Amino acid sequence: MLKAQRTYPWRMAENTARPGFETRAIHAGQQPDPRTGAVITPIYATSTFAQDGVGGTREGYDYARTANPTRTVLEEVLASLEGGAHALSFASGMAASDTVLRSVCRPGDHIVLPNDAYGGTFRLLDKVLTGWGVEYSAVDESDVDGVRAAIRPNTKVIWCETPTNPLLGVADIAALAELARNAGVLLAVDNTFATPYLQNPLELGADVVVHSTTKYLGGHSDVVGGAVITSNTELHEQFAFLRNSAGSVPGPFDTWLTLRGLKTLGVRMDRHCDNAERIVEALRAHSAVRAVYYPGLAEHPGHEVAAKQMRRFGGMVSFAPHGGQRAALDVAARTELFILAESLGGIESLIEHPGQMTHASTTGSPLQVPDDLLRLSVGIEDVRDLLDDLLGALDV
Ligand code: PLP
Fold first, then answer.
1. Whose CA is nearest to atom 12 of ligand 1?
2. From ligand 1's centre to the CA of 219, what distance in Å?
3. pLDDT-based confidence at 4, cuts 50/70/90?
């Protein structure tokens, strides 16, 4: 009973008494296979589907670039968790972002971007889309008036990321949604850092949610993927059209890994948050640390907004040691459990130097990050071991 197109009952708008988050993560769009009883959705490793006569598809499937049954189930779950009517999954988070921006923007159009956006998103705009005649302004999106001032007659999209990567800046999604609505502009929110467990931008008025499912949604650092969720059917159809035309789809095994990861998202996020809170506390008390960036801290400039729109404050922590870039690089080289690596959101803890790693593409631009900044993706290991490792690396 897997249909390429079907209406799923646990959707936000249709049913306010929907099951809880963890229940939807495990059951939305999924039921035991009617033929074999298999409890877990199979990996449909097929490129094409037999037809009963020309045009006679069995469940709406004809070719796997257009739709695949494993992918349909993943998209049902993603839509349910974000409270959207439609979801599409992609080969990567960047493929998802690119699809949204290229579906909506034409040469001469303009995009408002956060001035501390993920480096890859900045590169897509600055190095690729500008070549096709699309303009952008990078602004501090924690300042709604600044965003308002950046909107031009040709603005099509406000691109928002909250919390941001890597400085953990916070933007007020509901305020930006109101601004976007009044200006006739689309609000797209990259919800990768927060996940749908902690924050639901569509409920706050955003038009589109984007994810790098490579991170917390997959959750095990074993797959690259992306997702776009919206309740706007017309937009969804434009995104699906471009995805099918350009072919930026995930393969069935990657789709299945993401589907499996999603089942434990809620429990993992609680543990990520617990561990991050303990690490923030220890870093703040440490004399070798100059600054700690975490939206859960009362002194964080975005704390009030984050507390209003997020369930908890997430597993990402950035900090700067005293001693500048050299000291930061030394700390990153000394940790052992915190593996020196790019990416985030997996079960294992990672440390990285954004200036020379994930955000190297922003060097020399208004999005350049401080060169003494370190970013932690706090994993779900025993927090005592994580504290020993990190404090040991600071204590030399
Ligand atoms: N958005 C954010 C906030 C990210 O951190 C990343 C990757 O690090 C992306 C988008 C891009 O995702 P992907 O690497 O899956 O293409």
1. 93
2. 13
3. low
- Output the CA 373–ligand 1 centroid distance in Å: 19
Q: In what order do the strands lie in the sheet with 289-293?
A: 289-293, 316-321, 374-377, 350-352, 339-340
Phi, psi of 221 (to 5 degrees): 50, 35
* Coil/strand/helix, residue 280: helix
Structure tokens at 373: 């900044």
Give the distance (Å) from ligand 1 centre to CA of residue 286: 31
The CATH fold assigned to 13-262 is Aspartate Aminotransferase; domain 2 (3.40.640)
Task: Supply the DSSP string of 43-85, one letter for each residue.
Answer: ----SB--BSSTT-BSSS--BTTT--HHHHHHHHHHHHHHT-S
Q: Return the residue whose CA atom lies nearest to atom 11 of ligand 1.
A: 93
Domain 267-395: homologous superfamily in CATH: Aspartate Aminotransferase, domain 1 (3.90.1150.10)
Active site residue 382: no
Query: How far apart (Å, rounded) are the C-alpha atoms in residues 396 and 391?
Result: 9
Q: Which of 158, 161, 13, 174 is nearest to 84 (CA)?
A: 13
Question: Is residue 263 annotated as part of the catalytic site, yes or no?
Answer: no
pLDDT tens digit string along 321-363? 999 999 999 999 999 999 999 999 999 999 999 999 988 888 8
Q: Which of 97, 167, 210, 214 to mutate to test ligand 1, by most ligand atoms within 8 A of the CB atom?
A: 214
Of the residues 11, 44, 71, 118, only one is catalytic, namely 118
Give per-residue pLDDT as tens, 238-294. 999 999 999 999 999 999 999 999 999 999 999 999 999 999 999 999 999 999 999
Amino acid at 277: E
Which is the closest atom of ligand 1 to the Cα of 95?
16
Sheet holding 208-212, edge to edge: 86-90, 226-230, 208-212, 186-190, 155-161, 110-114, 135-139
In the residue annotation, 215 being an active-site residue is answered as yes
Taking the domains of the chain in order of start, what are their residue ranges? 13-262, 267-395
Domains 13-262 and 267-395 share a fold: no
Beta bridge partners of 111: 136, 157
Which candidate in 18, 65, 271, 278 is catalytic? 65
